[in-house]
Design a protein that fits this description.
The protein is built from one helix and four strands, in the order E-E-E-E-H. The protein has a four-stranded antiparallel sheet with strand order 1-2-3-4, with helices on one face.
């Protein structure tokens, strides 16, 4: 199973998320919880995937819930990276 989501503004892709169910985690029972490998790219057209991880998701919650969960994780990681960069700059780092 593969799920691809593109984020576009005025037809121009600004980011993409690619989600794949991990092999061996293929139970399609609605109550099963499977592992999904996801990758995020602000520059997917160039093939530059910058963030990736594995997330667990209840199969019966559906694809939209999975995308929502992954986008939330992407946003969290971006915010954490921005906060770390801000702290680094305030401490006089380059």
């Amino acid at each position: 199973m593969s799920l691809d989501t593109e984020i576009r503004i005025n037809g121009e892709m600004i980011a993409a998320v690619h989600i794949v169910r991990v092999e061996g985690s293929t139970n399609t029972d609605p109550d099963s919880v499977n592992d999904y490998q996801w990758s995020y790219s602000p520059d997917a057209q160039e093939g530059n995937w910058t963030i990736s991880a594995v997330i667990q998701h209840r199969y019966g919650d559906g694809a939209i819930a999975l995308v929502h969960k992954v986008i939330g994780e992407v946003l969290h990681r971006i915010q954490m990276a921005n906060a770390a960069a801000t702290i680094h700059c305030h401490r006089g780092g380059a």
